[in-house]
Amino acid sequence: MKALFAAFVVLALAMPSVASAQMGCELPDEIVAHVQDGLIVVGHQNATYNCCPDEFLYEVSEEDDVIRVWEHEIRTYPCACVCCYMLGVTIDGVAPGEYRLEFHWLDYGTGAWVFETLPITVPPGPPPGRAGIVDTYSSGCLSSPQDLPEPPETSPDEGSESTWGRIKSLFD
Fold first, then answer.
1. Among 48, 80, 118, 136, which one is most buried in terms of CB atoms within 10 A?
2. How far is Cα 87 from Cα 31, in angstroms, rounded to an integer?
3. Alpha-carbon distance 37 to 125, whole Å?
4. DSSP class of residue 42?
């Protein structure tokens, strides 16, 4: 009987950590995009990823009137938890015109790649180069979607050393 009680206590104590290990964003993923000073600024709000990624990388390609952006979570030593992020990427070198922006990300709930398509209009400006990534932004691990900060007005990578959050420091 004591062994059964001890097993129950151990299980009960473990349950909160198991539940918190599965916590991601309470709200669905939201992709937003706008053009600012000739740059395409794309935000991925309510992004659920591992608590301890190495970094987030982006790929961008342009074909006719479609701009495809792929968001990748790089994780060498993942933690046993997920959390909510606000991520972003800034793209330069796109010629003026009407585009469909396809933003692709890995959905943690299903394990499948998903995408959302948004219309984008790039106004006339300086001669374009080749579409490429100028900057990226990560909020770091957020404890809840209500903690989502506004995207920075200045360089998104300023202070990036401190953006990994409290959880990652526990596993370093």
1. 48
2. 10
3. 9
4. E
